[in-house]
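quick one: D-xylitol-5-phosphate bound model?
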Amino acid sequence: MRLPKAGTVEIVPSVLAADFGRLATEVAEVEAAGVKMIQFDIMDGHFVPNISFGPPLVAAMRPHSLLAFDVQLMISNPRQYVDAFVKAGADHITFHIETEDEPLELVDELHKAGVTAGVALNPETDVLRIVNVAPYCEMVLVMTVHPGFGGQEFIPEMADKVRQVRGLVGPATRIQVDGGISVDTAPIAVGCGADTLVAGSAIFSAKDRCAAIADMREAIASAQPSLAVQ
Ligand code: DX5
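yep, here:
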C-alpha cells in the first residue's frame, strides 16, 4: 500500500496542468518538494467533456518517479481498464460512483489487483450514493469542480459535502478534494475534514513549484496548527 496512511495532510500535484512535453522533469520538480503522490486524470471524452491520456503515459512515467501514482478514472467503463492501469504502475485507483453499478465488486477487484481503492462523487451527486461502498475504500474523492478541466473555481458548497463524508467514513479513511485547490481554498477544505489535496494549476502554473507547494502547506498549517502537513 503506497497511499499515505490517514493522519497527515498530503498535497497531490495533478499532472493535467503540467507541460506534457517535459513531464518527467516536471514530476521530478514536485518530487523534490517532498510530495508523496501525484495524480493522473484519465478522461475519455464521454463521462467528461475532455480527453486526456491513458495507460501508456502512466507506464512511461513509472520508471522516472518513486512517487505513489494516484489514477482517477473519469471514464464511463472503469472496470475494463483496471488491469491496464495496474500494469502501467498505478498504486491507487479511483473510479466515479456515477459510472459503476456494482461498486463493491469493483473495489474488491482493485484490492485483489494489489492497489488501494477510491470512490469519487461529482458535485451534483449526493453522499447517499456512496454510503455502502465508502467504508471499503481507502479514500473518498469529493470533486470540488465539475470534472473535465483544470483551472476552474472551487465550488464553496462542496465544503459541507466534505463534512458529510468525514462524518460517514470516520478518521481512518482519506478524503481527497480536487478542483480549484489553492492557498485560499486548501485551508477551507482541510478545516472541513479533507486530508488529501489535489492541485493542478496552483502548482504547475507557478514559476517555482516548490515554493507554490510550500505556500500551500504554510496556508494549511497556519489555519490548522495541530495538523501534520506533508
Ligand atoms: C479536473 C481534474 C483535476 C484538475 C485540477 O477534472 O480532476 O484534477 O486537474 O486542476 P486545478 O487544480 O487547476 O483545478
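The radius of gyration is 16 Å.
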